[in-house]
Amino acid sequence: MTAIHILNGPNLNLLGTREPEIYGTTTLKDIEAACQTQVSAAGGTLVFGQTNAEGELVSFIQRAGKEADALILNAAAYTHTSVAVHDALKAVSIYKLEVHLSNPHTREAFRHRSYVSPAVDGVIAGFGAMGYRLAIEAAFEHLKSKTA
Ligand code: CA2
Fold first, then answer.
1. Share of residues in the chain with pLDDT > 70 (%)
2. Regarding predicted confidence, which is higher, 17 or 68?
3. Which ligand 1 atom is the nearest neighbour of the CA of 99?
4. Which residue owns the Cα nearest ligand 1 atom 12?
5. How far is ligand 1, taken at its centre, from the CA of residue 63, in Å?
6. What's the confidence (pLDDT) of residue 24?
7. pTM
8. Which CATH number fits the domain that encloses residue 113?
9. Rounded to 5 degrees, what angle do the CA atoms 46, 49, 54 make?
């Protein structure tokens, strides 16, 4: 069975409650439920997590490397700062996708650099909550083509 792990970084637990003009009104619980439905319908299993702590992000990535076929990561602000997240991703050879709700390139300059992008297979940004759906679809397509 295909195992998908989805990990969300700092402050994403606040989704839907503040700054709706940037991040929309969908909550992280809503996103988790939609991801669960999509992954189950495709015959896979889902682990969905959120943490505000950098070290926990690293541990989650290491766990995905052992247990998952694909990792979908919104590292939030750690995207732009974390060499530890970058190194953890480099050490993991499963299929990896970076997701952002907003398009960081249209925002402040400090969001233009990603330590995640050079260590993943693809990036989906600027589609709001739909980005998670697109990432799951891309992961299943990729894994299907690999086993065909
Ligand atoms: O667009 C994205 O998904 C981001 O990863 C979100 C991060 C931001 O630092 C990245 O540059 C882009 C911030 C997540 C904070 O989420 C909040 C949600 C609601 C209210 C406050 C923060």
1. 99
2. 68
3. 3
4. 76
5. 23
6. 84
7. 0.97
8. 3.40.50.9100
9. 140
Ligand 1 centre from 47 Cα, in Å? 21
User: What residue numbers bound the domain in which 33 lies?
Assistant: 3-147
CA-to-CA distance for 48 and 72, rounded, in angstroms? 9
pLDDT tens, residue by residue, 1-11: 999 999 999 99
Q: Is the pLDDT of residue 148 over 80?
A: no
Q: Which residues are part of the catalytic machinery?
A: 23, 100
For residue 49, the Cα-to-chain-centroid distance in whole angstroms is 10
Q: For ligand 1, pick from 52, 73, 100 the residue to mutate: most ligand atoms within 8 Å of CB.
A: 100
Q: Are 131 and 125 in contact (CB under 8 A)?
A: yes
CB of 22 closer than 6 angstroms to any ligand 1 atom: no
Q: Look up tokens 């060499």; give the residue.
A: 83
Mean pLDDT value across residues 52-67: 98
Reported as a single tens digit per residue, the pLDDT across 79-101 is 999 999 999 999 999 999 999 99
Question: Which residues, in sequence order, are bridge partners of residue 6?
Answer: 48, 72
Query: What are 8's strand-pairing partners?
Result: 50, 74
Mutate to test the pocket of ligand 1, among 7, 12, 85 (most ligand atoms within 8 A of CB): 12
The total number of structural domains in the chain stands at 1
